[in-house]
Amino acid sequence: MSEVKTIDNLLEKMWADYIKLNPQAQVIVDLFKERGDEVVNDHIALRTFNHPSLGIDVVAKPFIESGYEEKGEYVFEEKKLYAKHFEHPKEDMPKIFISELKLEDFSQELRDKVDELVKQVDADTIKRFDFTSLGRPWALSSEEYEQLKKESDYAAWVAAIGYRPNHFTVFVNKLKSFEGLEELNSYLKDKGIKLNSSGGEIKGSKEVLLEQSSTLADSVEIKFSDKSMTIPSCYFEFAKRYEDGSGNLYQGFVAKSADKIFESTSKSQ
Length: 269
Ligand code: NI
Description:
The chain is of the alpha+beta class. It has one domain: 2,3-Dihydroxybiphenyl 1,2-Dioxygenase, domain 1, CATH 3.10.180. It has helices spanning about 5-20, 25-35, 55-60, 60-65, 110-120, 125, 140-150, 155-160, 180-190, 255-260; strands spanning about 40-50, 70-75, 80-85, 95-100, 165-170, 205, 210-215, 220-225, 230, 235-240. It has an eight-stranded mixed β-sheet. A two-stranded antiparallel sheet has the order 8-9. The longest helix has 15 residues, at about 5-20. It starts with 6 loop residues before the first helix and ends in an 8-residue tail after the last helix. It binds nickel (II) ion (NI).
């Protein structure tokens, strides 16, 4: 692809990169389209560390420059994460959800390792408009990956997979051929797709205005500095939104549900 200059180009590039790591997403989109459904992207999730050089606000920059605005913030106590979501004034643009690992809640060893990784990335790379589609910007050995994974699946995922979407999300309200998430989930399972069942297949409820389910992450072979290893990569998410008291479709996220959704990359299909 030629140089990425616009937000539409960036979103396309992120999708192209994402389906290489998570081919099941394209398979699912094609299945929905065959049923005559329109597939709309509800949100894209990105992951980072709260390191001063690479925190949420740094990762969000290209989106802010493209008209996105900060909307909600979330704390995930159990996973030791903080997150923000961003919306674009144009309604058909996906929301951008960015989480960061709270490094201060982890061992000195983990913090030093993350610092070492981040220091390998030059400032010009971080400033690139398409930074969130570049993947892993540092060298990492399989041993370092395993070491991080002992303390945090999330830290190991960011270290190995890097800056690219953790998941895209189908906006279920737009799928006319399914009654709801339950029917959608059974359909996917019939097609042999494994869902994340940690905390139940459907996270959230009508009461909290958001229901979500997700696939288990695809496995992908990642080249580490010493060898290649197959690890969980990205997953595909499905979100159904409900109207709030004033009749507006809820646009936020529910921290309690997402806590379990984060586990979609703890193991893979
Ligand atoms: Ni999500």
